[in-house]
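Review box. Two proteins, two foldings.
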Amino acid sequence: MPVTGTVRPGARFARLMAALVLAASFAGAATAPADAFELFGLRLFGKKDETKTEIVDPVFYSATFDAGVSNEELSDSLRDASLLVGDEGKAVSGSLGLISKARNDRERLVAALYEKARYDGVVTIRIAGRSLDDIAPDAQFNTSGPVPVSISVDPGNKFVLGDISLTGDAASLAPARFGLMPGGDAGSTAILRAERDMVRALKQEGRPLARVVSREVVADSATKELDISFGIEAGPIAPYGRTNVEGAEQVDREFIAYMTGLEPGETYSPEERDRARERLQNLDVFSSVSVAEADALDPDGSIPMNVVVSERKHRYFGVGATISSTDGAGIEGYWGHRNLFGRAEKLRIEGSISRIGSAPSLGMLNYNAAILFEKPGVMGPASKFISSVRASFEHPNAYNSFTVDARAGIRRDLTPKQTVSAEVRVAWSSVTDSFSPVVPRSHLLVSIPLEYVYDGRDNRLDPKRGQRFLVYAEPTRDLFSGANFLKVRGEASIYRSLDSDGRIVFAARAAAGSIVGAPLAAIPADRRFYSGGGGSVRGYAFQGVGPRDATGKPTGGRSFAEASLEMRIKVSEKVGLVPFIDAGTVSAATVPNLSTLQFGAGLGLRYLTPFGPLRVDAAVPLNRRPGDPSFGVYAGIGQAF
């Protein structure tokens, strides 16, 4: 749960906190030039990688396309492969440019036919009524209007696999293991994938130089069969040797080699090579990373590894915003550095103001400021040191608090999908709530947050397949009151695509938690469980689900349970609809009371962008209680879970 709460020190303190928030958000901008500015993840200024090229002697054309088949899937695939069709309306450079584009298009269409196992298909392209093969390279067309271009395809017959033979070091491999069997899929994509997988199977034995040395493919038009023969050379088993680094400018080269985790003397593994690339990419300082084995062994029999990187801009800053009909609007600003001391150390300074429009005065807005620091590789390449200091002045429905929270610890990747972390956390807070509504209570909490996360999602902002599990435990002692308690929480989410293209995705989430060891009143209000709002049970206000005191103010609880179901439907390339239902309960007891579940349901709109979906959800409470809103509207970036 987020650290929240505050005493009510008045408008002067609120103005001071607002000034600190803005200073924290844009500190660094005055001391160093900004290399990029981002708004909702979009770069507004900075160096561009793309340059515009002026078209010399522009020629326009009109295209007609005949796929020659009623099969909609094949027809769409061929149409998508044609750049003449896709770029219609865009000028080419002179008549020669049109001829070159047509020749390239024919090759693309033939390749598309091969992908569908159609090896006797014919592609015919005519420009101004003349066959492409009959047009001289220096031909000139009448360009007073769009030049007519026609594309027609005779897709031919669909082939299947016939004889399959493996020679050389691949002779012992079973072709069926890689999807190659008589009568099977003869598409070029399936064949190349099998070839790649066979080479990888040999590399998994520790053979970095495994490669295809020959490939023979014969299409028999009479039998409609494709006979293939592969010759593969395995090469010797070899250990890692030196790691060579190229492209580094400000990031330390020795550090880059260290972070690959490819230890000299250990047997080569393609999985370890791939993990090394992912580990370097996750440092967030490189725009591109390549990790590959050399073409030959060193004299000592080891395989050198070549790392090529391209660095990102290291400094950045940006702003963001959120809005909710029940919780008001919020703004945030941040400044960061991705390579503070030359070894991918991250520094981020951020601040936010929320409850704008829903708070009765400036003094009742929520203010947050934080400084975060990370240093990777402190206990091996798979680890990082994490630390932060946060100050918050907050007024949610359940309490008011002023909090200063400091923490430091280690996060370690057990596998590419599993992460554990352990921290030491010290937080001072002054809180008023239902149990102490007038005189603030001060707390000095020392705790050890422990967390395990399994993340098998295919995409974090818009997952279509996979699952994610989280287990969290935080033993805590209040040095002022002497109270001891243990907070535990678990969460699971699953994602299943109901079609091959991921246009319809079923998503489900469940979470539960409990606090044991101290009565509710002894647990600081900002450490209790709450539910309701855009991140839990939509249709209700933030903290709107759960027990309340006599005045209707939420008290929080020692346990909670939540569940959500969504059907994510992609109705076009840019727009998605998401019907959903949420449920949640909060209880003062250590076990959640499922008989008090509150339900919310609604419909979400998604605008799909390259950096993730923009989300707007509208929901209504299904078993509304007195004081609950009649509906809620929530907006943000990424899916709800």
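Next protein.
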Amino acid sequence: MVVMEISNENCQTPALSACSAGIIAALRATAGVAVIIVARDSTVVSWNAGAEIIYGFPSAAVIGKKLSFLWPANEAAYYEGAFRRVFAGESLNVSERRQTASTGDTRLVHIFGEPVRDDKGDVVYALLIGRDITEETETREQLNALSAHEYSRSVVLGTASQVALDILASRQGVEALRHIADAARTLAGARYAALGVARPDGNGLMEFVTVGLTSEEESEIGPRPTGRGVLGLLLNRTEPLRIEDISKHAVSSGFPPNHPVMKSFLGVPIRRGDQILGSLYLTDKIGSLAFSEADEDAVQALGAHAAVAIHNLQMLSRQKALVSGLIMAQEEERRAVAYDLHDGLTQFVMASHAHLETFRKAYDQANTEKAKREMDMGLRYLKEAVIESRRLVNGLRSLALDDLGLAGALEQQIQEDKNRAEWDDADLIHNIAGRRFDKALETAVYRVAQEAITNARKHANATRVRVVLLLGPDPQRMGNQLTLEVRDWGSGFAPEQKVGEYNHLGLHGMIERVSLMGGTYDLESRIGEGTRIRATFPIMEPRTSDASAKQGDE
């Protein structure tokens, strides 16, 4: 309850003779707030600068008039009742919208009213304090809307993530991609959704799934897009793309000519780091509406999870290709072994058998000279058979690896091929003397080197070969790596032709062995200049039994 005294200063009627100088000073200090004093008959007796600003009326035009001139006709009864309650000793607390007279702007004003009493305690005036809360209210509404938006966004993202996780937990491959596209279509309320998987080079799409079309519409579409137009644009973007009317977009020609008529469009690129994996897009939001920011958030979240599905799909395809290649390589190795047995070992054994048979006949006939000659030839071919059998066994599993280690086995291999090919120069440069590694790693490195050296002997027509094997730090991982390089200065070839041909399984076998060990493979060759093969292998620690055996040997 406020008890006030009012002085004569700035007052317009004798009724204010009891006003104090203190309240006048207070009224002057509140220019940003409307301070209005009203008599019991609702006549305005004081109207400060703040009231002039908020309501747009100068004090000279208001003082002495009834305050009811501010009241809308349809609200007059409400305010009359409110003033009666103030003069009855109650407080007033209300917000009202008022149009400023000077500008015509509608402002939201909060009014606080209290009775003013004289020395006897009688209510003689009503003090009204008004504050413009338009900006404050708008700011609060904006904050509330933003808060509601963030809450809705978190709900949308949470829902999208949960849907995607459920899909990835129960689906895989193309089926998972189809379900993710359908989930995006459902969450965003779209008619049609499509998800494309980018080619390894990021240029166009190699896999494409669609949801939302009838079977008849699907059959009428014809060839799938190859990455032109808006689809190609998506693959080259890092941010989502929303288009209100796709038919007016300059790159809409990227869709098949028989694609159903579209209006609204929402597309997101699917990336994993800097790698382009694909794109996910929706068309025709239900109700002929444009896609919203919330739709964009949901589709973007699903796109992020789709990256996992695409990566898994690529890994699965890669594994299938590796397994298929290894099976073909094993079959080729079996054919090669059969060929070597037939044309090598078997021929030596048969020749030895023939000479020994001739020896037996000559011996029976007491032809000592011929018997001795046939015996020598039979023993010679038996010796060749032993050498050939060792070569075949060594080809199946290099015994030299067990006995000599990786460096020693490679030295032996290079020396044997140098003698057979009559190379002028064949060097091995390494820094792993006395070092042993995991058996799988040693076998992989040895086989890749063996294949590269054999290719140089059989196909390169080279006179000089160099093999380099170095142990050093792995810049991509914690630890070390083995780097193998086999270089010849022979005839060379066109790699893009040979690698793509399945009859060159030796090259595929090297690539697959390196990939299965988690390494990298690179081949360079130019016709007339020779060939260089370079492979890196992450180091795997030798098994305990291997390490123990090594210590025992030492």
